[in-house]
Amino acid sequence: MRATDLTVDQIVAKGLEKSEADEKNLSRFEYHQKVTFDKIKANGEAESVSNLEMQVSPGAQSEFTVVGQAGKVTEEQQKQARLSQKFKMTFSLRKMAPRFNVKLDGKETWDGRAVYRIAFSPKPDQPFNNRVEKISNHFVGFMWFAADDYTLLRAKAHLDAPVDMAWVLAEMEALDFSYDSCAVPGGAAPSKFLIDYRLGFVVGELHNRNEITTSDFKEKAAAPVAGKN
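Above: the chain's sequence. Below: its structure in token form.
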């Protein structure tokens, strides 16, 4: 079967396999990660910005180390570092795929590579166990897979409608996210993950933008062999 004969479900399945292989490959590397937290004013300007930089070593006992500042790391920065690590550093097709209808929306070129553009929209009446799953049930957007090896090169999504977050007396009025990857030896890795969301409350609203960028991927040094000097 030629690549052009693949169905959209087969393309997504191959993309899922490739993403999982890339996630496993990522454990071979250490990398620099920058997390930016913006609070956005009504006019779109950043009201306050908090930047946090860290060195990340997936699978290590101490997975991240805050860098790039003098003096003691504050408790708030430690909290932000832990929060940033909750964002899965590869786009989780395994968790997302069953919740969505997909269709092949076209073929195009991205960064010099032929890609499949896959549109996705939520299946109706999907169950949810937490706020993240409830919000995910309203995502619509696109994924771009490389036609040669099915690497997920990028993804973009937004809410198709506001989501009632009744247990906190709030409504997720809007949420946009985007994901971009970069090449590393042996596969691909995340380069940027952006979430821009607006929560409406009984009084007022909260508009935040969080961006995670990763760079400077370096293979970890080989562990010393026991008994050898």
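The longest strand covers residues 170-184.
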